[in-house]
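Fold it.
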Amino acid sequence: MKLQSTYLADFIALLFPELCQACGESLVTGEELICTDCRYNLPFTNFHFKPDNMVAQQFWGKINLEAAYALCYFAKGGKMQHLMHQFKYKGMQKIGDLLGNIAGEQLATTPAFSTADLIIPVPLHKNRLRKRGYNQSVCFANGLSEKLNIPVDENNLVRVRATETQTHRSRFSRFENMQEVFALNNPETLINKHIILVDDVVTTGSTLEACGAELLKVEGLKLSIATIACAE
């Protein structure tokens, strides 16, 4: 029966092949979402080995961080751009879980992250969440949680004001656009906790900076940042 099931699965795959979400080529048996070639050739940053990496440097003099990390580099036209497009706009939520698992495996050996108490994803405004149907940062956070064995809290940090798209704004304009956007529902539950704040892609860092500034108002809170990708 098991052999027959394998043949049936292979036959269905011939008719309706599952495609790699990074390169568009057909997946083979045993591959999920990303083909083996793409998985091992993603533009990994290895920032878990580099405490003074470019993401950490973005926040120097702005907010105090224990550590900062991005799994991959993001380049226009590259595999990560296609992968993130499928993830954010085509409903492929499982991509976030998978990338979170990969990142979690790296960070599990990094003391600054493995000793954290809680993972908090950057929230979407309720209107955007309703339109998209899911928060991509939550997907990534859940994947991290599986490997780090650290719980996710997606209800404490909230976005209280909708903002316009940041895509074509200058860095200063992005910073202004993010003022008084975030709030905490239960700050007392975060006292003396080490939080990993997660987002999908960090560019100027204005969103993470605004979230981090709100979190760091809590007494004794320590903050680290983890993202899927960073712009080169």
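The longest strand covers residues 222-231.
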